[in-house]
Design a protein that fits this description.
- This protein is an alpha+beta fold.
- The chain has 6 domains: 9-152, no CATH class; 194-257; 262-382, Distorted Sandwich (Calcium-transporting ATPase, cytoplasmic transduction domain A); 393-478 and 881-990 and 1025-1123, Calcium-transporting ATPase, transmembrane domain (Up-down Bundle), CATH 1.20.1110.10; 482-492 and 696-764 and 789-880, HAD superfamily/HAD-like (Rossmann fold, 3-Layer(aba) Sandwich); 505-692, Calcium-transporting ATPase, cytoplasmic domain N.
- Helix content is 41%, strand content 19%.
- It is globular and about 120 Å long.
- The chain crosses the membrane at residues 225-244, 401-422, 434-457, 896-915, 921-942, 963-985, 1031-1049, 1061-1081, 1101-1122.
Length: 1188
């Protein structure tokens, strides 16, 4: 695969999350015939291998060729998993449209190659090559020579082009061509037939191995265990198929309604028609009426405005206002034509349009942007259908572990072949015994045993109101060492309480008007701004919208209504939103205020603006937003000189501060014709709105618990930096003894290059700091003693962007101690989380899909936005999730160790017996496999999570030294015990004498059943396995399986102590009791059934002594050495071991760097030393060493 023909290799979805490599292949007849013959002669094994390895299927059937000539394409993901799949290239024929519309290669629609859809049509035969990958259709672009996604409008289109080309709809011919090439506008999730799910599950390599094992056992007449495995497999498969079927049905019903919506579509010649949503194509013109409608596609609003509930996408059912895409000159792509987020013009599929407000033309119009699985909802559904595989070291180590067992089995097979061939056994017996070794060394029950720990953890999480759609991630939670929190609604309460308002005039800020006093705010521009500068809507007589807007409006005691038909003011549409003073209000000179136009709030812009008309008064513009942003749009003389210090007074107390401003507008302009730039200039500063955002009661104790467990906590917020610092201090994220270092980075301006400065934040001394973006008290000097303390870095989204661009070498060093990130836009949050992921395993309440583990606080049982959803609306779920993750991880390790030991104990015992051409009987195997191991495997995992988080994590790897040492030591211990028992029994004085003397109990029936191994001719047919070696090895192996389970069942510090797992302890007691009963009972019928011989009591006592010694040595070694963390840390120090992880290297480098952090310094991007050094190590947040 290293060398490709020209045009054979390309990238699909370049730069996107689902990026793939694509290779061209052409099917060859002779290769196909050879593969068919191979499939027949291999009895179906070859197709099975091709099913498991799709790349081999393509390489066997096809020859490489260019993508243009290919009839088959091989796809490979570009992530670390490199997953292969293959697709057939299919043709779409447009000849059917030829007769209906007279389409010919010379038709104007065919010759216009401006759009991808036209470039994909091959002339003169009018057909299109395409492939369908993960529900998305890709067509071959003949002009550019590549496969491109179809079903969306082109990103390069300018707003002017969208208005011009699609503003009056598509012709019927255009619609039909697009319909044929793009496919239907449906999100089809077919309910997978049970037979298909069954076949897919049965063809899993694990079940194929089980099938092989079962066939072998039937050939050896080992029917009981074979039936037991069949029953367990049937139950396991049935539960999996049932679960998958339920998910499939649930998802089908979830999206079914999307495919049958009736919409109004305007055609260029046909006019407005009522059509089914499935026939929509990109470029269609939708007409939205005032009724509620569920969006069947993504569409860009070009006329009128809409209020939309985006709860399906965001999880927050707060109405969002959408504005029309302005028609701007130039060829700039419409998504990047303004600094504001383009999403404010887009109506997303699956969201509900609550209100549609027409503009002057009387209609609300939107152009279809994307259809089917290309839409926002389609993308979410695809993420459920095709989830990203979890990359976790444990799963990679598990494969290596199984390969080691296979290697061990191979050695055993060679040994078996040698022993049995030399002893002259028949060939079929030799083959059977050799294959037996594989099923002994590689236990078929291993995968089932490993998943039980995760299932139990998932059940315990569900009881706590934490739901999971990706169970594999529970183990990942056990390795988390950093948690990123949002502030509002996560650390602090959802609702904001309006604390007061500070108005200002030419003399500066006035006294605070407290709403707690019950006095109404006096009439003035500030009162008008609070009454009208919001995005609230009136729905069924109820005011709905953002909680902040709601609190602000309620404080004015005004009312909201729609204007009537008799409402006639120039430029004001009928049925406009009007706010009026309540009847009890006095001294308000206006009847009301009509809201004419909104420029909605955007987190990127940090502000919103409205144009309003006072009834019988002036036309005004009001702005509300982040104080520093609003002040920058105001006339400087209107902003009080004490602005910075006044703002500081409130932000240092943790209040949320919003600024308000206004200006008068001319009445002769229509509101919708005014651009945002014109309105948002030369404003008059009105004052500050002070809102109280209290911490949730659970926040501080949870953060303290995480910090004491050395799990780093980070805050990422869109709020003011000083407010974020205050909340970080109040919540305990930054302790009183720790310092906060403010990092400010500025873009290149004129002659000066980009700069970065480091300043220590002082909490008590109030010093004005005149930077417009951050208003924080700065400490002028820092004593040398201050350096010895621990530091946290605080920075804004602007600084983060500049550092990413110009100081990228410093970024990882800053992230190690970066705790407070404020004024972060959604894009910056995603970038930050992605950077953090490279350093640590993180859990996140922001950019949920970017983190290793995402958790959303929602009332719903599951959210497609994150693997975990907590019904409890606070961060108490975080420690629970980490504790359960750690418990599940330790449980997985316990089960790995136990299953390895169980298989090795049986393996050693059987190989020793093979030396005498003997083996364990079927009932002996059955007792060990079913009565001992299966019960232990089911109950060993029941331990709950330990209630306290300890300041270190469990090992994240199976091949860590303590774990490997534990397994190897116990294997050697069991081997030594088995060999000792095997040799000692042969040296007993009663071993070669007549059978009557082998037992102390003089029982004729026992004497008849027990016979000397030196006289095989006397043995009965059922006694081929009966020997003193067999009896000794079986008792040693069986009871050893029980003692090993007790030794390996871990309790503290990650799981509840073993004695709390009552079922497991009871099972062990019963199993041990039964084994000792069999050993000492002398029941002839029982001995005959189990193919055991009666031995003297002294020898039985010797067996118990050997097992006791084995148990004591194993337990002491496990507790004193394997689980002794202090010992391993000392060994690491003695040998000078240092972690190889990049994160640890940065920490070590900076621990020895006296110049870090560079306080009271400013560096420029053109200075060679600005990126020197690495990062400062914060001892409070130092997580445990690279796992032992």
């Amino acid at each position: 695969m290293g060398h490709f023909e020209k045009g054979q290799h390309a990238l699909l979805n370049e730069g996107e999350e689902n990026e793939m490599e694509i290779f061209g292949y052409r099917t060859q007849g002779c290769r196909k015939s050879l593969c068919l013959a191979g499939s027949i002669f291999s009895f179906g094994i070859l197709p099975l291998v091709f099913y498991w390895r799709p790349a081999w299927h393509v390489w066997a059937h096809c020859v490489p060729c260019s993508l243009q000539e290919a009839d088959t394409v091989l796809l490979r993901t570009t992530d670390e998993f490199q997953i292969y799949s293959w697709k057939k290239v299919i043709w779409i024929y447009l000849s059917a449209l030829n007769s209906a519309f007279g389409l010919t290669p010379d038709h104007p629609l065919m010759t216009d190659e401006e759009y991808i859809i036209n470039r994909a049509i091959r002339k003169p035969d009018l057909k299109v090559r395409c492939i369908k990958v993960q529900k998305i259709r890709y067509v071959w672009n003949y002009l550019e020579g590549q496969f491109q996604k179809i079903g969306s409008l082109e990103d390069w289109l300018s707003s002017a082009k969208i208005h011009q080309k699609f503003g009056s709809g598509l012709t019927r011919e255009e619609q039909e061509i697009r319909r044929l090439i793009c496919g239907p506008n449906t999100i089809d999730v077919e309910v997978t037939p049970i037979w298909k799910l069954l076949i897919k599950e049965v063809l899993n390599p694990f079940y194929i191995f089980q099938l092989f094992s079962v066939c072998l056992w039937f050939s050896e007449d080992y029917k009981e265990y074979a039936f037991a495995i069949i029953i367990m497999s049937i139950i396991s498969i049935s539960l999996t198929v049932y679960d998958l079927r339920e998910q499939s049905v649930k998802l089908h019903h979830l999206v079914e309604s999307h495919n049958s919506i009736t919409v109004s579509v305007c055609g260029r010649k046909a006019g407005v028609q009522e059509l089914e949503s499935r026939v929509l194509v990109p470029g269609d013109l939708l007409i939205l009426t005032g009724n509620k409608v569920l969006m069947p596609c993504d569409a860009v609003l070009i006329e009128g405005s809409c209020v939309v509930d985006e709860g399906m996408l965001t999880g927050e059912s707060i109405p969002v206002t959408k504005t029309p895409l302005p028609k701007m000159d130039g060829s700039v792509p419409w998504k990047t034509q303004s600094e504001a987020d383009y999403k404010r013009h887009v109506l997303f599929c699956g969201t509900e349009v609550i209100q549609a407000k027409a503009a002057c033309s009387g209609t609300v119009r939107a152009v279809v942007l994307q259809t089917g699985f290309n839409t926002a909802k389609g993308d979410l559904v695809r993420s459920i259908l095709y989830p990203k595989p979890v990359n976790f070291q444990l799963y990679r180590d598990a494969i290596r572990f199984l390969l080691c067992l296979v290697g061990t089995a191979t050695i055993g097979m060679i040994y078996t072949l040698c022993v049995y061939v030399l002893s002259g056994e028949p060939p079929e017996e030799v083959v059977r015994k050799a294959l037996d070794v594989i099923t002994i060394a590689v236990p078929p029950a291993l995968p089932a045993a490993l998943t039980t720990g995760i299932i139990y953890a998932q059940r315990r999480l569900k009881k706590r109101g934490i739901f999971c759609i990706s169970p594999q991630r529970i183990n990942v939670c056990g390795q988390l060492n950093l948690v990123c929190f949002d502030k509002t609604g996560t650390l602090t309460r959802d609702g904001l309480d309006l604390w007061g308002v500070v108005s200002c005039d030419r003399n500066g800020f006035q006294e605070v008007h407290s709403f707690a006093s019950g006095q109404a705010l006096p009439w003035g521009p500030l009162c008008a701004a609070m009454a009208s500068c919001h995005s609230l809507i009136l729905l069924d007589g109820t005011i709905q919208g953002d909680p902040l807007d709601l609190k602000m409006f309620e404080a004015t005691t005004w009312e909201m209504a729609f204007s009537g038909d008799d409402f006639h003011i120039k430029g004001v549409p009928a049925h406009a939103m009007v706010v009026k003073p309540c009847r009890t209000a006095s001294q308000v000179p206006v009847e009301g205020i009509a809201i004419l136009h909104q420029f909605p709030f955007s987190s990127a812009l940090q502000r919103m603006t409205v144009i309003v008309q006072e009834m019988g008064g002036d036309r005004l513009a009001f702005m509300k937003g982040a104080p520093e942003r609003v002040a920058s749009f105001c006339q400087p003389e209107t902003v009080p000189t004490s602005f910075v210090s006044e703002l500081q007074i409130y932000t240092t107390q943790g209040f949320r501060v919003i600024a308000l401003a206004y200006k008068k507008l001319e009445n002769d302009h229509h509101a919708t014709t005014l651009t945002r730039e014109t309105v948002e200039s030369d404003l008059i500063f009105l004052g500050l709105l002070i809102l109280e955002n209290r911490l949730k009661e659970e926040t501080k104790p949870v953060l303290e618990e995480l910090i004491s467990a050395r799990i780093r906590t980070v805050m990422i917020t869109g709020d003011n930096l000083q407010t974020a610092i205050t909340v970080a201090r109040k919540s305990g994220m930054v302790s009183e003894s720790q310092k906060v270092i403010l990092i400010e980075a500025n873009e290149t301006t004129g002659s000066s290059s980009a700069s970065i400065s480091w300043t220590l934040v002082e909490e008590k001394k109030h010093i004005t700091y005149g930077n417009q973006d951050n208003y924080i008290n700065i400490r002028d000097e820092v004593s040398d003693k201050g350096r010895e303390g621990s530091y946290h870095f605080a920075l804004t989204g602007k600084s983060f962007h500049v550092i990413s661009q110009h100081f990228s070498s410093l970024l990882p060093k800053i992230l190690i101690n970066g705790t407070i990130f404020a004024r972060m836009s959604p894009g910056q949050k995603s970038s930050l989380v992605l950077c953090q992921c490279r350093c640590k395993l993180i859990l996140c309440f922001q950019a949920l899909k970017m983190a290793h583990v995402g958790i959303s606080l929602s009332e719903q049982e599951a959210s497609v936005a994150s693997p975990f959803t907590s019904k409890t609306p606070n961060i108490e779920c975080v420690p629970h999730l980490i504790k359960e993750g750690r418990a599940a991880l330790v449980t997985s390790f316990c089960m790995f160790k136990y299953m390895a030991l169980y298989s090795m104990i049986q393996y050693v015992g059987v190989l020793l017996l093979y030396w005498e051409t003997n083996s364990l009987s079927n009932y002996q195997f059955l007792f060990q496999d079913l009565a001992i191991t299966t019960l232990i495997g089911v109950t060993m995992n029941l331990n709950g999570a330990y209630p306290k988080l300890v300041p270190f994590r469990p090992a994240g790897r199976l091949i860590s030294p303590p774990l490997l040492l534990s397994v190897i030591f116990n294997i050697l211990l069991s081997l030594a015990m088995h060999i000792a028992g095997f040799i000692l029994v042969q040296r007993q004085p009663w071993y070669s004498v007549e059978i009557h003397s082998a037992c102390t109990v003089q029982n004729e029936s026992i004497s008849e059943l027990t016979m000397s191994p030196t006289a095989p001719e006397k043995m009965e047919s059922n006694s081929t396995f009966t020997s003193f070696e067999n009896t000794t090895i079986w008792f040693l192996g069986t009871i050893n399986c029980i003692t090993v389970a007790l030794v390996f069942s871990k309790g503290k510090p990650f799981r509840q102590p073993t004695y709390t797992n009552y079922i497991f302890v009871l099972v062990l007691i019963i199993q041990l009791g039964v084994c000792l009963f069999i050993l000492f009972a002398d029941i002839p019928e029982l001995y005959r059934r189990l193919d055991l011989l009666c031995t003297p009591v002294l020898w039985r006592a010797s067996i118990v002594i050997m097992l006791s010694l084995n148990f004591i040595v194993s337990l002491v070694a496990e507790e004193a050495v394997i689980e002794n963390r202090a010992l391993w840390m000392m060994i690491k120090r003695c040998f000078g071991y240092q972690s190889k992880s990049q994160y640890r290297i940065w920490q070590r480098d900076l621990a020895n760097d006296p110049s870090w952090p560079p306080l009271n310094q400013t560096s420029h991007s053109d200075m060679p030393e600005c990126g020197r050094g690495v990062s400062y190590s914060n001892p409070v947040f130092e997580s445990n060493e690279e796992q032992l």
